[in-house]
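During the no-cost extension, the postdoctoral fellow (Dr. R.K.) reprocessed legacy sequence entries with the updated structure-token encoder. One reprocessed record is reproduced below for audit purposes.
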Amino acid sequence: MPALEDVLEFTLPAELEAHEPPEVRGYGRDDVRLLVSRRVGDEMTHARFTDLPDFLSPGDLLVINDSGTLPAEVSARAASGRTFALRFSTRLRSGEWIVEPREMRPQAGDTAWLPDGGAVRFVRLHASSHRLWVADVYVPKPFVEYLLEWGRPIRYPYVPAAWPLPTYQTVYSRELGSAEMPSAGRPFTCAMVDRLRARGVRVATLTLHTGVASPESHEPPYAEWYRVPSEVTRAVREARHSHGRVIAVGTTVVRALETASDGTGQVRPSEGWTDVVITPQRGVSVVDGLLTGLHEPKSTHLAMLEALAPREHLLRVYRAAIEEGYLWHEFGDVHLIL
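Re-encoded structure tokens follow.
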């Protein structure tokens, strides 16, 4: 078994990487495993995602992220004639884009060519990143329309085959804007949402458009656009009044809620850019639980988990997940922290 003395560093066995969606393996979208861990008592339960309603109570509030996934990777051609993958991450207020050229190191001022007469000019490295660039981008039609025609979903080497865009959408996605899927919500089906509501669990929706993660880089998260509507603030207030728990579906929801919080657990309607990074030192004031995937070694998401649960608890959970053969990544299993 790998040493997990530091929760941010452990060895993930290659056989525990989910290489394809569960539907391809002959299962339903919601037929993944669910590891439930309770901070009080340091308990764990091995279950299926279809058992989720059994672990929530009437009056609990589930907050989901309705951002839809863009086909954010496009083939580009450098001036040398070399073809490379260009990933579109985030559009800035200035109109410039944060982009990631894969397996290619441009210089400031370089131009690359995109399909259908598009072009990208690399302006400067983004902040302290060694992989992300701020770029001027020209495409001949509205950007989402352009990506839907010429782009493809971002995937990493652990997913060897290409899958169509609907594979990377949650059933409740509404507004296309994420470079990568907010994957904690992928196992949900419409039937599951109906079951939760029938049990008395409320569901509220916010939006946070995720950028390019590139998990192999281990860089901290950067600013992302979010919107927390008044319906969410009202739902959080009502859950608190009825002694219900606020459960975030995904780390993106935690980031948005904590950005909109006044630090005392009160949430205000807001939208804009968040550069909040959730750490054990910062802590959380809004969420009482989190449904999330199993995260890669050294991932900053694991630091967010430590803001919710003690390190010793997470060490035990991740050891158990490895021993029991849980699957990692966006097509893998999920972890509910209560």
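The helical segments are 143-150, 190-198, 230-241, 251-259, 300-308, 311-323. Residues 1-7 have pLDDT under 50 and may be disordered. The remaining legacy entries will be reprocessed before the final report is submitted.
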